[in-house]
Amino acid sequence: MKNVNKNQLFLAACISLVVTSMTFAIRAGILTQLGEEFMLSNQQLGWINSMGFFGFPIAMIFGGLLYNKIGARKLMVTAFVCHMLGLILTMMAGGFWTLIISTFFIGFANGSVEAACNPMIADMFTKNRTAMLNRFHVWFPGGIVIGSLISKFMTDFGMGWQLQIAVMLIPTLIYGYMFFKQQFPESEHIETDTTKNIKGLADPLFIFIMLCMTLTAISEFGPQQWVERILGNSGASPMLVLAMVTGIMAIGRYFAGPIVHRLNPIGVLVMSALITTAAVYSMSVAEGSMIYLAAVLFALGVCYFWPTMIGFTSEYLPKTGALGMSLVGGAGMFSTAIWQPVIGGWLDTAKETAVSSGLADEVAELAAGKATLGKMMFFPLAVLILFSILFVFRKKLEERRVPQGHTEEVV
């Protein structure tokens, strides 16, 4: 890696992740506008949301399988092209099906970013993998802060959803330029034999982690993606709640290193699941300004889920290589895709029940949101039980972990 500028590659990777997260935040912010303009139900909006999450795991599966052969550069070319296509097609959308197609392209681009950057970072910073993956994933919540504030500002000033989508073209062009002028590293510190990677997938621990990832992902993205619809009549500003949550997540991930080293990834995951369960329950019963306190708790809970799960796979299941990291991430997004229309259906059903009981429309919306959050609480509760099982065997699992250092390798 002598001629590789690791800092510049890391920075470009972070900007590409900003684009990824902005697509989540701005889509959450414009759901109501899309529903009104195209007369879409919550369930139809859920299907549109699901395409972003569905395209993601497809890209990660293909990216994981092809990473050893084509490398990070070609995967990032794919990400750039699909981001441009998806954003432009979204601006030109005329209804449900065109939104479905354009959102799929964006999801595929987002998955390509993760499929390329996670193994590249694990390879470049092999002595500090989970900490550096947390630092990379600072920019997922960081981008959501940026996107949610942009969405709120533009919506408050009457700017349409097409302009909000167009804003994302700027960081897309920036990361494309930065990546394409850099020399990419050859894989040196991860397993690059795809046959061995595939054999490693048969490890019971890998299957267990895949199952856990399906629950941690929906625990994080379920409340986030529906924040505007769930909290729109709560007395709190949904996009400010989203910005606050993701801002806290970004700070937590930036300083993840000492926490990961002290608790190890398994301890971090148990702690996260416990806090998230309490937080989602609190959000389901909180009123007015108390929602902000529940949201802070939620941010502290889900903060380390995603990057620590990827880091766990890299450190405890090294034989799975880039494929293992991609499949774990893909499992999380696939699960989130499946649950999106289900959550939308929960909202529709709960609102119908509330309206039939005599509640006014706005009150019914709030009641439906709280009932839906109550159901979402069972996702982190289930994963808390699973991580507790992992915690019991933590000493045995440490024997298979890739040795880790205790210093940061990039700023």
Tell me what the structure shows.
With 411 residues, this protein is an all-alpha fold. It has 18 helices and no strands. It has helices at 6-38, 42-91, 96-124, 129-136, 139-156, 161-167, 169-180, 194-200, 204-225, 227-231, 238-254, 256-285, 290-302, 305-316, 321-356, 361-376, 378-392, 394-398. The chain is globular and about 65 Å long.
Short descriptors:
411 residues, mainly alpha, MFS_trans_sf, MFS_dom, MFS_Transporter
Give the topology, please.
Blueprint: H1 6-38, H2 42-91, H3 96-124, H4 129-136, H5 139-156, H6 161-167, H7 169-180, H8 194-200, H9 204-225, H10 227-231, H11 238-254, H12 256-285, H13 290-302, H14 305-316, H15 321-356, H16 361-376, H17 378-392, H18 394-398
Helix pairs in contact: 1-2, 1-3, 1-5, 1-7, 2-3, 2-6, 2-7, 2-15, 3-4, 3-15, 4-12, 4-14, 5-11, 8-15, 9-14, 9-15, 9-17, 11-13, 12-13, 12-14, 12-16, 12-17, 14-15, 15-16
Rg over CA atoms, rounded to whole Å, is 20 Å
Beta percentage is under 5%
What coarse outline follows from CA principal-axis ratios?
A: globular
> How far do the termini sit from each other?
18 Å
Secondary structure tally: strands: 0
Helix/strand order, N-terminal first? HHHHHHHHHHHHHHHHHH
Task: Look at the helices and sheets and give the structural class.
Answer: mainly alpha
* Helix content range: over 70%
Distinct helical segment count:
18
Sketch the major β-sheet.
Answer: none
The low-confidence parts are none
Q: How confident overall, as mean pLDDT?
A: 87
Q: How would you sum up this structure in a few lines?
A:
It is found in: Endomembrane system. With 411 residues, this protein is mainly alpha-helical.
